[in-house]
């Protein structure tokens, strides 16, 4: 269903083995949309690579700064992969969700996330 909404707007979207929607963006980067039926939530997520050589302290400092300055997206470093920068946001669909709201929220997430990574991640952490 969610995949079909993206496709109806000519957005390249497919389902992965877990049933999550994989979206290929215009610049070739990827986003994931997970549907949590039980909690009535959509999770938009993008993952960016960080330097494996950079210190964990520097990465955590970056994430803290990003979370202090950005209000729409949450940034984190997962325990299972310390070279990844996870960017996500949750959107409720309890009581329904208009297609326009879903697509605008997704577009805003992508714009804010790309901009934050581009501006705030220093070269030494890339």
Plain-language structure description:
This protein has 126 residues and is an alpha+beta fold. Helices cover 34% and strands 29% of the residues. The protein has 3 helices and 6 strands. The protein has helices at residues 2-8, 56-69, 99-120, and strands at 12-15, 21-24, 30-36, 41-49, 74-76, 84-92. A 6-stranded antiparallel beta sheet has the order 1-2-3-4-6-5. A hairpin with a 4-residue loop joins strand 3 and strand 4. The longest helix is centred in the last third of the chain and has 22 residues, at 99-120. The radius of gyration is 15 Å and the shape is elongated. The model has no long low-confidence stretch (mean pLDDT 94).
- Describe the global form: elongated
Q: Count all strands and give the number.
A: 6
Q: Catalogue the unreliable spans.
A: none
Count of discrete alpha- or pi-helical segments spanning 4 or more residues:
3
């Amino acid at each position: 269903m969610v995949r079909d909404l993206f496709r109806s707007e000519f957005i390249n979207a497919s389902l992965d083995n877990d049933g999550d929607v994989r979206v290929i963006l215009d610049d070739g980067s990827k986003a994931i949309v997970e549907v949590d039926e039980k909690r009535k939530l959509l999770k938009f997520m993008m993952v960016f690579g960080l330097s494996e050589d950079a210190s964990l302290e520097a990465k955590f400092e970056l994430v803290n700064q990003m979370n202090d300055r950005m209000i729409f997206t949450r940034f984190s470093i997962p325990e299972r992969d310390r070279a990844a920068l996870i960017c996500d946001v949750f959107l409720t669909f309890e009581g329904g969700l208009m297609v326009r709201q879903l697509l605008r929220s997704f577009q805003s997430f992508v714009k804010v996330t790309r901009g934050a990574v581009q501006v705030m991640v220093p070269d030494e952490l890339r």
